[in-house]
Write a structure and sequence with these properties.
The complex is a heterodimer of chains A (144) and B (663). Chain A folds into 2 domains: 33 residues; 103 residues, Beta Barrel (OB fold (Dihydrolipoamide Acetyltransferase, E2P)). Chain A has a 5-stranded mixed barrel. Chain A has 144 residues and is an alpha+beta fold. Chain A is elongated. Chain B is α+β, with helices and mostly antiparallel strands. The radius of gyration of chain B is 27 Å and the shape is globular. In chain B, strands 3, 4, 5, 6, 7 and 8 form a 6-stranded antiparallel beta sheet that branches. In chain B, helix 6 packs across helix 9, helix 10 packs antiparallel against helix 11 and helix 10 packs across helix 21. In chain B, a hairpin with a 2-residue loop joins strand 3 and strand 4. The two termini of chain B are 48 Å apart. Classes of the chains: A alpha+beta (144), B alpha+beta (663). At the A-B interface, helix 1, strand 1 and helix 3 of A face helix 14, strand 1, helix 15, strand 8 and strand 10 of B.
Chain lengths: 144, 663
C-alpha cells in the first residue's frame, strides 16, 4: 500500500515536471523558429517588415561591395530567378565568396533590403547547405 | 595489396562478429558452457581484425597511397604527418571504421577483464555487443568501404583534407567523442543482457559502472575539445552554438550523466532498477541518433560533412532494429524485475531522482529542438531552424534546480535524511557562495541579474563539493594531520564526486562569465592604429606574408599594452590552402586563465593598407575547459576506485550474484 502510494506520488511529480517542461519547450519553440526562404519565396510569401527569417541562395557575381567604414558589406543573394539585396555589418566567414552558397539570418527593412545580423557560408567545396540546394532547385536551377 | 588486406580483415571481423552475436547467446540460453566461452575469442578476434583494417587504412594515408579513393579524397602528399594520420578519421568512411574499432575494443575489454562477471551475463553482454558490431560492420562494408581503389589511372596527388580539420583540437576531437558515444554501447549491452537474465541487482550496477564512467569521461573530453576547437578556430569566439551536431553529442552526455547517477542508486540501495535499464538503452539510442544525425547529412548544419541518403537510411534501420528490439524486450521483461528499496523524498535517493528527472527533461527538450525542423520539413515542406534562444529558454531553467540540488544531495543521508543536520552544512555552502558573490559584485559593474544568479550557482556548486569533502575528512574538527590521513584513505568515488561537481561549477562560471561580460570591438586598423578594449590598448603593427607547409599565411602583429606597458603580442593569421582552395582564420588568443584576449584578422580594405580587425575580451572563458578537465578527472578518480577494480577482476563473483550455469 505504502509502496503504491509512494510510487503514485513520484509519478505525479514526474508527470508535472514533464508537462511543465513540455509547455516550456513548446512556447519557446513557437517563439524561436526561423523559417528559411530563397529569394523567389521571399517574393511569394509577402513577408512583412521586421519578420525574422533565414535567407539562402548564391552570392551573385559582382555584387559584393564593402562600404568605406570597412565593416559594412552589401551583396545580392540570388536563386537565378529572383534576387534580394543584403546589408551586413561585421566580418563575413572565411568561405563567403561570390558564386558560393550563403545563408543569412535577419529581416527585411522598409525598402525591401535584407538586414542580416548573421551570415553563414557553406562549409567546404563539395558542400552546399541543403536548403540552398533545394531553393535553387525550386527556382528551376538545380545544382549540377 | 595492403588495402585489400584491410578489406579482408574487415570482412573477417564481420564473420567473427556474427559468431560473437549468436554462439554465446545460444550457449547461455541452453546452458552450454563451451558455447558461452566462445564469445571471448570471437570478441578478441573481431577486435584484432578491425585493428588490422584500421592499421591498413592508416598505412595507406601515411604513405599517401593515391590508388585508394578515400586517400585521394581526403589527403595530400604535402600535408603534415600528424594530419595524414588524423585524416584517417577526418572523413565519413574512416570515422565509421574508428567507430566499429572502438565498439570492438569495448567488447574485447569485457572478454579480457570481465572475469568477475557471472558466465551467463558475460556471454550475453558479449553477444549483444557482437550484434551491434554486426550491424555497423555491415554498414561500413556495404555503404562506406574505405578501401575502395580508384577506378582507372590513380591521380598524381590528393584533394586534401578540409583545412578547418587540419588542427590539433579537431584532430583528436572525434576519437574522444566516439569513445564516449560507442562506450555507452556497454551500458546498452549490459542492460539488454540483464533483461534477458531477468535480474538487476547492486552487483550488476557495479559491473556496468566502469564502462559507463569511461564512456562518460570520453564524451566529456570530446565535447570540451569540440567546443574549444570551435572557440579558437571558427574565429567567432563562440564556444557553443546549439548546432544540431553539438546537440547530438550533448544529448547522450545528459542521458549518460543521468545514467551514472541512477546506477549509483541501484548499486547502493537496489532501487530505480527498471528506470536505470531504460536509461541505459536510451543513452545508447541517443548515441546512435547522434551518429545518424552527423553521418547522414540530414541536418542543416555547418558540421554536416556527409551527404548521402543511402547511408542515412541504413543507419536509421540499424537504430530502429537495435533500439526497437531493446525497448520491446524491456516492455516484456522489465515488469518482472523485483521492486527495489524504498526511500523518502528528502534523502540522497530523492535528490538523485530529481537529478534524473531534470537531466532527462533537458535531454528531451534538446531532442525536440533538434528534431523538430526535420519533422516539420517532412510533413510540410517548410524549412525552419531552431535558434539558440529556444535552447537557452528551455535548458537553462532546468539547470538551475539541478545545480542547487547538486550541492544538497551529497550532504543527505541515504533512505531518510535528517534535514536539520544538513541545514547547518548548507549554511557553510551558502556562506562561501555569498563570499564569492561579493567578490563578483566588487569586480564587476552593472552586471545583469541573471549573470549574478549564474555566478552564484557556480559558486554554490563548487562550495557544495568543498563542504562535502571537508565533511568527509572532518576538516577543522579533528587535527589537520588526521584529516589528511582520512583524505588519503577516501575511496576514489568520493574524490570523483567532489571533483566532478566542482568541475561543473567551474565550467558554469566560465559559461556565465564569457556570455555576460563579453566585450567586442570590430575596427578597421592600419599600421600604428590603437584600439582600447577591456582596459587593454591594442596597437596594430603590421601584416606579413609567409609560407606554411601546405598553405600561405597573412600574419598580423598586434601589441597589447596595459597601463602603457607592453604585455603581449597577438599574431592572428589568415591562411590560404591552395589545394583545397579554402581560407581559414587563425585567431590569436592571450589567456591569463581568468580571461582571454582574442584577436581575429579580417579582410584587407580594398586599395589601402588597412585591415578589419575583430577583438574580443572573454572573461572566465578558459574555466569552461578547465572545468571540463576537472570533471573528467573526477571520472578518472572514480574509475580508479579500488572497489570497482576488485569487482571487475575478482576471480570469483560476489556470492549474491554467482550465477549457476544450468546443466
Amino acid at each position: 500500500m505504502r509502496r503504491k502510494h509512494r510510487r503514485m506520488g513520484l509519478l505525479v511529480v514526474a508527470l508535472t515536471g514533464v508537462a511543465s517542461a513540455a509547455a516550456l519547450a513548446l512556447t519557446a519553440l513557437e517563439d524561436n523558429l526561423l523559417y528559411f526562404y530563397g529569394p523567389s519565396q521571399v517574393d511569394e510569401q509577402g513577408l512583412s517588415t521586421g519578420q525574422r527569417f533565414r535567407l539562402g541562395g548564391l552570392v551573385a557575381y559582382d555584387s559584393v561591395q564593402r562600404l568605406d567604414d570597412g565593416m559594412t558589406i552589401t551583396f545580392t543573394v540570388t536563386d537565378m530567378v529572383e534576387e534580394v539585396n543584403v546589408v551586413y555589418v561585421g566580418i563575413v566567414p572565411d568561405l563567403f565568396a561570390e558564386g558560393q552558397g550563403v545563408i543569412a539570418n535577419g529581416m527585411l527593412d522598409r525598402d525591401g533590403v535584407f538586414q542580416a545580423d548573421e551570415v553563414l557560408a557553406k562549409h567546404d567545396e563539395n558542400y552546399m547547405p541543403p536548403e540552398v540546394a533545394e531553393a535553387l532547385e525550386q527556382a528551376g536551377h538545380p545544382v549540377q | 595489396m595492403i588495402p585489400e588486406l584491410g578489406h579482408f580483415a574487415l570482412t573477417l571481423a564481420l564473420a567473427l562478429a556474427i559468431v560473437q552475436a549468436v554462439v554465446p547467446m545460444v550457449g547461455a540460453a541452453t546452458g552450454r558452457a563451451a558455447w558461452m566461452l566462445a564469445g571471448r575469442p570471437a570478441a578478441l578476434g573481431q577486435c584484432a581484425a578491425i585493428l588490422l583494417a584500421f592499421i591498413a587504412l592508416t598505412y595507406a594515408y601515411v604513405v599517401s597511397d593515391f590508388t585508394v579513393l578515400n586517400v585521394v579524397q581526403n589527403s595530400h602528399s604535402a600535408k603534415p604527418m600528424l594530419y595524414k594520420v588524423t585524416g584517417v578519421w577526418g572523413n565519413h568512411e574512416g570515422s565509421m571504421l574508428l567507430w566499429v574499432l572502438i565498439l570492438a575494443v569495448f567488447g574485447a575489454t569485457v572478454a579480457l577483464f570481465g572475469n568477475g562477471l557471472p558466465e551467463t551475463l558475460r556471454a550475453r553482454v558479449l553477444a549483444v555487443q557482437g550484434a551491434v558490431g554486426v550491424g555497423f560492420l555491415a554498414f561500413v562494408l556495404l555503404t562506406s568501404n574505405p578501401f575502395l581503389r580508384v577506378d582507372g589511372m590513380p591521380p598524381f596527388d590528393g584533394q586534401d583534407l578540409n583545412p578547418l580539420l587540419q588542427d590539433p583540437g579537431l584532430a583528436f576531437h572525434p576519437p574522444f567523442l566516439y569513445f564516449g558515444y560507442v562506450g555507452f554501447s556497454m551500458a546498452f549491452s549490459f542492460a539488454v543482457a540483464a533483461l534477458i537474465e531477468g535480474r538487476v541487482d547492486p552487483a550488476w550496477a557495479r559491473w556496468v559502472r566502469p564502462w559507463t564512467l569511461a564512456a562518460w569521461i570520453g564524451l566529456t573530453l570530446g565535447i570540451a575539445l569540440g567546443s574549444w576547437w570551435a572557440y579558437y578556430e571558427l574565429g567567432w569566439g563562440g564556444w557553443w552554438f546549439w548546432d544540431p551536431v553539438e546537440n547530438a553529442s550533448l544529448m547522450p552526455w545528459l542521458a549518460g550523466t543521468a545514467l551514472l547517477h541512477s546506477a549509483v542508486v541501484v548499486e547502493k540501495r537496489d532501487a530505480l532498477k527498471s528506470w536505470t535499464i531504460l536509461l541505459a538503452i536510451l543513452t545508447f539510442a541517443l548515441s546512435l541518433l547522434g551518429t545518424f544525425l552527423v553521418r547522414s547529412g540530414v541536418l542543416t548544419s555547418v558540421h554536416a560533412f556527409a551527404v548521402d541518403p543511402d547511408r542515412g537510411v541504413f543507419i536509421l534501420a540499424l537504430i530502429v532494429l537495435t533500439v526497437g528490439g531493446a525497448l520491446a524486450l524491456y516492455s516484456w521483461r522489465a515488469p518482472m524485475l523485483a521492486p527495489g528499496g524504498m526511500f523518502r523524498p528528502v534523502s540522497r535517493e530523492g535528490t538523485l531522482v530529481l537529478n534524473n528527472l531534470l537531466l532527462s527533461t533537458a535531454t528531451a527538450t534538446v531532442l525536440i529542438g533538434t528534431l523538430y525542423p526535420l519533422l516539420l520539413e517532412a510533413i510540410s515542406d517548410d524549412r525552419v531552424s531552431v535558434g539558440p534562444p529556444y535552447f537557452e529558454a528551455t535548458v537553462v531553467p532546468l539547470m538551475i534546480p539541478l545545480v542547487v540540488a547538486m550541492a544538497i544531495g551529497p550532504l543527505l543521508a541515504w533512505k531518510r535524511a535528517d534535514l536539520s543536520g544538513v541545514l547547518g552544512r548548507l549554511g557553510a555552502v551558502a556562506g562561501l557562495t555569498a563570499v564569492a558573490l561579493m567578490f563578483a559584485l566588487y569586480r564587476t559593474t552593472d552586471a545583469p541579474v541573471m549573470a549574478l544568479v549564474g555566478l552564484a550557482l557556480a559558486a554554490w556548486a563548487i562550495a557544495g563539493s568543498l563542504v562535502e569533502l571537508a565533511e568527509r575528512i572532518r576538516l577543522f574538527r579533528i587535527p589537520l594531520g588526521a584529516s589528511w590521513k582520512r583524505a588519503k584513505g577516501l575511496p576514489g568515488s568520493a574524490w570523483g564526486l567532489s571533483l566532478a561537481h566542482a568541475g561543473l561549477g567551474i565550467a558554469l562560471a566560465g559559461m556565465v562569465g564569457s556570455t555576460a561580460f563579453l566585450s567586442e570591438r570590430i575596427q578597421v586598423m592600419a599600421a600604428g592604429d590603437t584600439v582600447e578594449i577591456a582596459g587593454y590598448d591594442v596597437t596594430f603593427e603590421e601584416v606579413l606574408q609567409t609560407q606554411g607547409p601546405n598553405y600561405v599565411v597573412e600574419r598580423a602583429r598586434l601589441t597589447v599594452y596595459r597601463d602603457n606597458a607592453a604585455v603581449a603580442v597577438l599574431e592572428p593569421e589568415k591562411r590560404w590552402y591552395p589545394v583545397a582552395r579554402m581560407a581559414t582564420t587563425e585567431a590569436a588568443i592571450r589567456t591569463t586563465m581568468f580571461a582571454d584576449l582574442y584577436a581575429v584578422l579580417g579582410d584587407q580594405q580594398p586599395g589601402n593598407a588597412a585591415w578589419t580587425v575583430r577583438l574580443y575580451h572573454h572573461p572566465l572563458v578558459p574555466w569552461i575547459w578547465i572545468g571540463s578537465i576537472v570533471m573528467s578527472l573526477g571520472g578518472v578518480a572514480s574509475l580508479a576506485d579500488r572497489r570497482l577494480r576488485v569487482a571487475i577482476t575478482a576471480r570469483r563473483a560476489p556470492a549474491s550474484a554467482a550465477a549457476q550455469p544450468a546443466e
